[in-house]
Amino acid sequence: MSVSEQARSGMVLLKSELLERAGGTAHAFSARIGGVSEGAYFSLNLGYRRGDDPARVRENFRRFCAAAGARFENLVCSAQVHGDTVRIVRAEDIGWDYETPPPKAADAMITDAKGVVLAVFSADCIPILLYDPVRGVVGAVHAGWRGTALGIAEKTVLAMRETFGCNPADLLAAVGPGISRCCFETGDDVPAAMVSALGDEADPFLIREGGKWRVDLKGLNACFLRRTGIPAERVEASELCTACRPDLFWSHRRLGEERGSQAAVIALTTGT
Asked: Which domains does the chain have, with CATH numbers?
């Protein structure tokens, strides 16, 4: 996964090399550089519920979507609740005022509508972008530890198969920047939830250190994706840790509640 700087705006963003090579999508994972927000939200805050000026959030989205090659007027967001609901998005769902919460709750969205821009938010949680270049379907997933344990990534792939006829073997998956095992220290509840969901398959992603655990959420989500039938070589994961790099990313663990949020976006540029 490559990090690039957009010369016109000074914006830093990440794009998946897998998705770039395949073509057919506009997509990106944001960082926190290149926006117009001020104070605690300086500079590229894309979080609409953080307390930032909605006009600044709107301008930040306009810049970010432009850098990603997507139309910010076509943005679709959902209220993220750390659950496992997968929302099917249609063209008529576009439109959002950046001031009120999105009307529907979901932690993943899928669509086959060209130009619709799916967006998920994060600030340590794991963003995942999915693309089926055969069927022309995209998905965006927000996976915190609860959503990970609920199998939100796996359920999104299964929803793509059931709704649009996707073959998981055709899918490409990009797991974006989020908190890594180096910084995600937890008690027993998180690993217990992962073992309950994955059994022995969870073991490589859990390390016990004294009375605490270090958990690899990116690896766990990649494991869920591979379980659906996506080949390992078609799953790409960013090595960047949001908690290690508060200079580059918003991190809830490092910055607390007074902070901005990243976003990941994806849209079909070919298809119906």
From this structure: 2-268 (3.60.140.10)
